[in-house]
Amino acid sequence: MAQRGRGRLTIFGRRYGTHTCEHCARSIVGEGNVTQHGRPVGAPPDPADATIPLDAYLGATDALTPDRLLRGRRAVPEHGWRRLVHRASRGRVHPPESAAEVRRRELIARVRTPVAGGHHRVAVLSLKGGVGKTTTAVGLGSALASIRGDRVIAVDANPDHGTLSEKVRMETPASVRDLLAEMASVPHPRYADVRAFTSQSISSRLEILASARDPELSKAFTDHDYRSAVRLLEHFYSICITDCGTGLLHSAMGAVLELADQVVLVTIPSVASARSASATLDWLEAHGHTRLARNAVVVLSSIRPGKGAGVDIEALRTHFDKRCQAVVTVPYDPHLAQDAEVDVELLQARTRDAFLTLAATVGDGFERR
Question: Are strands 262-267 and 120-125 parallel, antiparallel or unpaired?
């Protein structure tokens, strides 16, 4: 026989009234908003149950969501005591979502923002090498590809023997130049034709289009080549992430910036790297790319443990917050430090959360065109 009783439950510093029995249950549907089923009609209100109606936030009609009305539609708790309660009750008791679960659901919704115009180009930049630029491009692309239902591709536009192809299991040695040479003789290319030249991550579905392995050929990758490549890709992919070189003046960079809808600027928490990143924003504004600079997302990447010791991270965040759209911090992760293939399943939880936040922040720009 289930115990009847009243008590107080504290969740993340907030106190809630509780009441459970075999015939009635109460579920918290929002912070401080508690609903009870099974109370006798006319029973006096319990002061512990004083709440702000959900309708006050959502509107009467918006409150009638499938998740609230249809059995089995509410998200199953994945962690902690909520999961234990849900399993112990065989799904009859749905504990409230934690603040972290609510935030994660909101981030995922932002990642899934429809792409205006059907195609969005993101350029990942850094003036300094060794700051985690390519890793950031793969982390961003992996988060987008694993959550969205459409296709996402990352293109290596680094003229100095880029390493993007080393971040996924290689399925083909083909490069972007091979793709362009082959497609020149194909009047109506299909997705399958393009897919033959890409490698795909098993863990995230992100596709990679590599640069030429011969340094002479990669340096010869021109504005025209880049334009031809991305205009082909836009027919088959919703999002194209370009992993750029470490300079702003190499052969294809003019086309990369001209065609980009958004820029992700990667730096590490050091004085020299931060000054370089800020100078990059200065350069963009001085060369007709003010929109890209203002809408840029700055990533503070901790590629080695202890990197940034003694640096005022909050001062860095404040500086870049004033200059661009947002700042996202990616923590040190032993799996990324291996500088090899990236398997999202092997990332630490906080690293996955950081890339999810980055993908959501980039997703906020999908509606801009």
Answer: parallel
Cα gap 100→12, rounded to integer Å: 11
Q: Which residues contact 360 (CB under 8 A, 6 or more apart)?
A: 106, 107, 108, 110, 111
| Cα R_g (the chain), whole angstroms | 25
| pTM (two decimals) | 0.76
List the domains of the chain with CATH numbers: 6-97 (no CATH), 115-363 (3.40.50.300)
Cβ-contact 199, 146 below 8 angstroms: no
- pLDDT tens digits along 255-311: 999 999 999 999 999 999 999 999 999 999 999 999 999 999 999 999 877 666 688
Is the C-alpha dihedral spanning 366, 139, 305, 303 positive or negative? negative
Residues 6 or more apart from 58 whose CB is under 8 A from it?
none
The answer to which of 69-78, 79-88, 351-360 has the lowest mean pLDDT is: 69-78
What residues contact 6, with CB distance under 8 A and at least 6 apart? 17, 18, 19, 46, 48
Tokens 């500088």, residue located: 339
DSSP secondary structure letter of residue 252 = T
Which residues, in sequence order, are CB contacts of 142 under 8 Å at separation 6+?
Answer: 201, 203, 204, 206, 342, 344, 355
Q: How far is CA 195 from CA 128, 221, 301, 314, in A?
A: 32, 21, 31, 43
pLDDT at 124 over 70: yes
Q: What is the pLDDT of residue 70?
A: 60
